[in-house]
Amino acid sequence: LFSGLSPTLGATVVSIKAVTTIAKTDDNFVCATMDWWPPDKCNYGMCPWGNASILNLDLNNPILVNALKAFGSLRIRIGGSLQDQVLYEVGDGAHACPDFKIDKNGLFGFTEGCLPMQRWDELNKLFNSTGSIISFGLNALAGRSKSNSSGNLYEGQWDPTNARDFIKYTLSKNYTIESWELGNELSGSGVAASVEAVQYGKDMIVLKNVINDLYGQSKQHPKLLAPGGFFDKKWFADMLQTSGPGVIDAATHHIYNLGPGNDKDLIRKIQDPYYLDQVAQTFNDALITVGEFGPWSSPWIGESGGAYNSGGKSVSNAFVDGFWYLDQLGMASTYNHKVYCRQSLIGGNYCLLDTTTFVPNPDFYGALLWHQLMGPGVLHTTNDGSPYLRAYAHCSKKKSGVTLLLINLSNSTAFDVVVTSDLNLYQPRSGNEQGQHGEREEYHLTAQGGDLRSSEMLLNGKLLKLTPSFEIPHMEPSIVSAGAPLTIAPLSIAFVRFKDFQAPACAGN
Predict the structure, then answer these.
(1) Which InterPro entries does this chain map to (predicted)?
(2) CATH H-level, domain 23-379: superfamily
(3) What is the C-alpha to C-alpha distance for residues 27 and 73, in angstroms, rounded to an integer?
(4) Which residues contact 118 (CB under 8 A, 6 or more apart)?
């Protein structure tokens, strides 16, 4: 099925260093976001959010429930542009609980909004029943006022009163929040608002004290995340140095490296390996800065939708986006980022689940395969062929061997792939190729009808679709003798698990 259809170059050698890992992700690396945008959030003459917000999403939709259950432990980050305008209906905040309304003078064009505790209860019922792991983004502008002299700068200390009451309520209900994050896109020069780094660092100490005080003897010890904004080296360094050791567990930054959602060049960018590589510098800079100024913490991608302003219509929700998204997961792992949160689980054009029908888009299945197959141990992987073939390898998740992700960006060339290992340097054996022994599992992903803009995807030539009872389909691999040729068709993605790949780095699996 996957060979002989297109001209192939001579075999491409993918080399995996199997003796040591180069990085380690969190066990729940894949993460998706839920956002606050109301239905009247519009970009480019479209309003793609519908009823997909934290406040109005149908939490009983069977596809939503089954999608979360399919992961077993999907990490969800609750937050987004409007989070710094959210009141929590508890304590002194219990008197009025307004909805977000359009206000051209408001931040992001909206008034303040509010999270009712009844809704918070309903959300936690869903999270609890599906095993979801929650990061919650708190309002970081509480108590501050806009500077008269300095653009979008907000001055003054953070007022933790409402957040404290909200966290206290959450604890009183025994809801598990894995991590609390402060603020959204206030770092550096900010987006609609900004806060100075030293002040932010001081505010993180205040939040840490609130957490320590409230959680005290509790068995829960939530992590603290900050700042949930775009990476700015000096700002991040100053914020980490000010907050000091043991306060911030993860430095969260956001990636929107494809530009605006209405860019006519989106697909060209996604298929251009040189363009995809440009953002590697940001991952590397974040890793180095956190290592230098906050070695007690680690970098996470707290939000990434590829294209900003709700994503690209018929691009961010289509098969072609998988070239960008899965490449990002591979690249972020290589630079020791522990978590990667995709904007969004539902809502906008970059949704994993369709905003109106809830039917999974191709990237949902790509995310699920990563979650099921790619373990935390990251292996150094190179290929000697074309830059249009991307290759990333991890220790297999909770199973023996190694899983290789291959992405073929070329629209005309298939690649015959041979996999080798640095173990050959240590262990003489007949034949030099690690992949020759035992069998392997192959998951080949292609666009329905070869149309890159299709919202349907084939797994090993078979359409991925919900079962009649709205369950996520079970994704079965093709089992292949390890000696058989491994061919990656043009414009396709493959996860390949080599069951008997000898990898000392993965011995703990």
Answers:
(1) GH, Glyco_hydro_79
(2) Glycosidases (3.20.20.80)
(3) 10
(4) none
pTM beyond cutoff 0.85 = yes
Share of the chain above pLDDT 90, in %: 91
Topology, domain 12-21+380-506? Immunoglobulin-like (2.60.40)
Catalytic residue, chosen from 89, 112, 185, 196, is: 185
DSSP bridge pairs for 414: 8
Residue matched to tokens 């992949």: 435
Q: Is the pLDDT of residue 435 over 70?
A: no
CA dihedral 75, 139, 181, 126 (to 10 degrees): -20
185: annotated active-site residue: yes
- Residue 414 and residue 489 in contact, taking contact as beta carbons nearer than 8 Å: yes
HEC secondary structure over 311-374: CCCCCCCCCCHHHHHHHHHHHHHHCCCCCEEECCCECCCCCCECCCCCCECHHHHHHHHHHHHE
Q: Who's near 235: CB < 8 A, 6+ residues apart?
A: 187, 188, 197
303 is catalytic: yes
Cis peptide before 48 (omega within 30 of 0): no
- Give the tokens for residue 270: 């996604």
Detail the DSSP E strand segments found in 91-240: 113-115, 133-138, 145-146, 154-155, 179-182, 223-229
Choose the catalytic residue: 112, 181, 303, 441: 303
Residues of the chain with CATH 3.20.20.80: 23-379
- Start and end residues for every CATH 2.60.40.1180 domain found in the chain: 12-21+380-506
CA distance readout (Å), 166 to 59, 89, 327, 367, 378:
21, 8, 37, 32, 38
Tens-digit pLDDT profile for residues 479-491: 999 889 999 999 9
Cα angle, residue 468 at apex, residues 466 and 473 outer, rounded to 5°: 35
